[in-house]
Amino acid sequence: MTKDEAAEAVREYLQNAVLGSASEEIAPDAPLLEWGILTSLTTVQLIGHLQSAYGITIPHDQVVGSNFATLDSIATLVSKLSDTAARA
């Protein structure tokens, strides 16, 4: 999965499942944690969604604020992990 594909998938999930509105546009650099879009609960839900929908495993040591701070940082993580999973 490319970074752009990952960003779009995460954006769609957050808009629909977290914000409840597909019309809410999330910028790639929007501070998701700072703005309360991602909380501890919604982050866990997002991780579960990503793992089941895309067949990746997000290691516990990767569940850090810097990896979930923005849409861009999440997309980078998902893209990297999906590349690793595809090579395994």
Class by alpha and beta content? mainly alpha
What string, H for helix and E for strand, traces the elements in order? HHH
Largest sheet: none
Number-wise, the strands total: 0
Concise structural overview:
The protein is an all-alpha fold and about 90 residues long.
Textual characterization of the structure:
With 88 residues, this protein is mainly alpha-helical. The chain is built from three helices and no strands. It is globular and about 35 Å long. 22% of the residues are buried. The mean pLDDT is 91.
Write the layout of secondary structure elements.
Blueprint: H1 3-18, H2 40-54, H3 71-87
Helix pairs in contact: 1-3
Key features?
mainly alpha; 88 residues; 3 helices; single chain
